[in-house]
Amino acid sequence: MPSFPLLDIAIGLTFVFLLLSLICSSLNEGLESLLRNRANDLERAIRKLLGDEPGSWWASFLPWVNSIQKQSITREFYQHPLIRNLFRTEMRLPNYIPSRSFALAVMDIACPDGALVRGATTGHGTANSASVEFIDEVNNVPLPDHLKNSIKTLVMAADGDARQARLNIETLFNSSMDRVSGWYKSRTQKILFCFGVVITLAVNADAISIFRNLSHSKNLQAVVGAAQQVAAQTPPGQNLPGQISDAINQLTGLDVGIGWAREVDQHGTLDTTKLPPSLNSSSCKMETEPCEHPIRWSFHLLYIHGIGWLITAAAMMLGAPFWFDTLNRFIVVRSTVKPQEKSQEEGSKDSATKP
To answer: Is residue 137 classed as helix, strand or coil in its secondary structure?
Structure first.
């Protein structure tokens, strides 16, 4: 197999980022599941669409609190048979609602008994907003004017066609879900960055040091081989508990300069860039600064590794799927570009030109 030093270094660095991102993604998935952020974002968007009052932040944040316990149009929506079948209890609202179910439920709540269909057109087949019949209350809950005006506008745009009106409501819902996806992605990147900072400091993952060590590493080919094996496995996100354990084991087995090492754990020349701050004076013999002045030593390490740590934490924001795809692209390029291999026809031409 031909050697591509720069490409191999890029594969090794991407592989390290992938392993660290797997840890961050696993922690993020656990946090999202605990706090029900996806369901809370969906409920928040539905409240906006229905013109309801915003829910309590604490009610949506605490996993053991029912956020739709208060009587409201949002509760009536979630209690509709088409929506109620999507979740078990009110303590665990659904993470996803089909657009068709949303549109039919809204039409049934606002205009029961087919009033939307009957009153949507005039005698000339054109839409007439005044002819749309709405109910005033749903189980003693007033129907918001915002919801009435939205439905009237969508019915007028459909020219009285009930099917087109439903499609218009579905389009409105889908566009709102795009905004919800933006909320989720923005929050996920912030959470991944916070986890990335913690994990980067915990394992001393300095991107600049990793790049430098890979450039002079004798086992670079072994790192590339491990990366190829991981790239052939299940993509991230399908088996996070197992992948997180494998990621930790693989990180500890890579000799790329990751980790902290006390004096007693090092052999030969002392590497001060790996000495963590310590409150145990007996662990410092040659270099006493980490034990005598741990706070000052922490700032010294920040000065040495700060930029590299920041690069690593920023890379974690991209997520494990991004680095998995990037690793696959690098490996595909490495496996297809083989300058030392030529076809028989090219080989014969080269031999013919030689004297």
So the answer is: strand
Q: Which residue's entry shows tokens 């299940």?
A: 234
Confidence category of residue 317, pLDDT binned at 50, 70, 90? very high
Torsion of CA 164, 165, 169, 175, to 10 degrees: 50
Is 130 buried (19+), middle (13-18) or exposed (0-12) by CB count in 10 A?
exposed
Cα separations in angstroms, 196 against 13, 78, 297: 16, 37, 22
* This prediction's pTM: 0.78
**Residue 145's pLDDT is what?**
87
Q: Which amino acid is at 255?
A: D
Neighbouring C-alpha atoms within 13 Å toward the C-beta of 137: 5
Nearest alpha-carbon partner for 2 in 316, 329, 243, 334: 334
The pLDDT of residue 102 is above 90: yes
138 vs 115: CA distance, rounded Å: 15
All residues at 6 or more sequence positions from 350 whose CB lies less than 8 Å from its CB, including other chains = 342
What residue ranges in the chain does DSSP mark as E strands? Answer: 137-138, 141-142
pLDDT tens by residue, 54-90:
876 666 666 667 788 888 899 999 999 999 999 988 8
